[in-house]
Specification:
three-stranded antiparallel β-sheet; Aspartate Aminotransferase, domain 1; alpha/beta; 394 residues; 13% strand
């Protein structure tokens, strides 16, 4: 049986946190294996108090649907303590916010993809806590797609933004505690970091194999299948293709009013796509790009996650769309996620090389070859250095 870090934290509550005022960075998915939210679980304890609650992008319970919809804080209706937004006027806790607490507890469900902002909210919290010597405790949760191989280009440090703040690949296989350890080693060596690992988790696993309950960590991440395709299909956010926002299967569905599905199918059929297949599926988004317009498109079905390559598959889709849609396909310009100058696609990809390769009609297998040396170095360096869990189930 697998247990969340939160389960372990509550079962063996740290002695140095007893009697302390805790700040809690959490969201809807911050639950025990018995579905109890972290705030409710801590509220019942007599050996600590909750002094403040912090929420990431999309709010405490996923109430803000789309990207770049900021939310502002409030007073917690039950605890009567501040709820601070870290996706509004500030994304980094201020000293005034942290002055209300003795330690910050972070419990966020990540999805294993570099552009997902929760790990960068964690980074900003580590930075803020390090600056004024506030201890930070990070509770671990499964990387829901850890069985999916490392994939995609590395992030160049010159392209650091709120959707990427460290030199890691798109699909990185780390848990949020392992990322915290990497961030401490790389950027904040003096941070007072404490971690609580899971019990029974193994890296070569998908979320559905853990037996743990899934709560959508953001509005457009409804199920683990969404997380599986997200590390590549997030590229579509930076184009005029719909990534399926405004439907019930975001990131699995893709299309646009100008897509020629038979031509797209023929183009995709000329390349191998391990671990997945494509099926024609049109849709009408209820919000976001092409709202109310019929989009000709397809759905990705992942048939074998351990052979599936999310970034390479998405690059193949983009290459086929560029080939068949020609001048109707476009890369979007800034702004994107608090970045007003750099091209959105480039900050998702890691630098400008992938976009330039797609424009030049570079074959996908040649693009993939450019990633391999970087991924090999990451596997034997960073990942090996922070790995806390066995590769296979014991």
């Amino acid at each position: 049986m697998v247990r969340f870090g939160l389960d372990q934290f509550l079962l063996q509550f740290p002695a140095r946190l007893k009697g302390k005022r805790l700040g809690v960075l959490c969201h809807a998915a911050s639950i025990t294996s018995g579905y109890e939210h972290i705030v409710d679980a801590l509220k019942k304890r007599s050996d600590c108090t909750v002094g403040a609650v912090f929420g990431p992008q999309h709010g405490l319970f996923g109430q803000t649907q789309d990207n770049m919809i900021e939310w502002e804080g409030e007073t917690h209706p039950d605890l009567k303590v501040p709820v601070f937004s870290l996706y509004g006027r500030t994304r980094k806790p201020t000293p005034e916010m942290l002055a209300r607490i003795d330690a910050l507890v972070v419990d966020l469900q990540d999805v294993g993809a570099r552009p997902y902002t929760y790990i960068w909210t964690l980074k900003l919290c580590m930075e803020a806590c390090d600056e004024i010597n506030v201890p930070i405790w990070v509770l671990d949760r499964p990387n829901p797609i850890a069985a999916v191989a490392l994939d995609g280009p590395m992030l160049d440090r010159h392209f650091f933004t709120f959707v990427g703040g460290a030199e890691i690949p798109l699909c990185h296989r780390m848990t949020i505690v392992e990322i915290a350890c990497f961030l401490k080693d790389t950027y904040y060596p003096t941070a007072d970091l404490h971690t609580v690992t899971m019990d029974g988790w193994w890296r070569n696993s998908m979320f559905g194999e853990t037996g743990l309950p899934w709560v959508l960590p953001s509005p457009n991440m409804p199920c683990p299948e969404t997380a599986t395709v997200y590390p590549g299909m997030v590229f579509l956010e930076a184009t005029n293709l719909s990534e399926g926002r405004g439907t019930t299967r975001p990131f699995e569905l893709f299309g646009a009013p100008f897509i020629d599905v038979p031509a797209l199918r023929d183009s995709l059929g000329r390349k191998p796509h391990p671990g997945c297949l494509f099926r024609e599926h049109g849709f009408i988004p209820t919000f976001n790009k092409w709202q109310g317009r019929y989009c000709y498109g397809m759905q990705i079905h992942v048939t074998d996650p351990r052979s599936y390559k999310p970034a390479a598959t998405a690059v193949s889709i983009l290459s086929a769309c560029i080939e068949t849609a020609k001048e109707e396909f476009r890369f979007k310009g800034p702004p994107y996620e608090y970045e007003a100058e750099k091209v959105p696609f480039d900050i998702l990809a890691g630098d400008s090389r992938l976009r330039e390769a797609l424009i030049a009609s570079t074959p996908v297998d040649i693009i993939e070859e450019t990633w391999r040396p970087e991924l090999d170095r990451f596997r034997t360096g960073v990942l090996a250095g922070v790995a806390l869990y066995p590769e296979s189930r014991k």
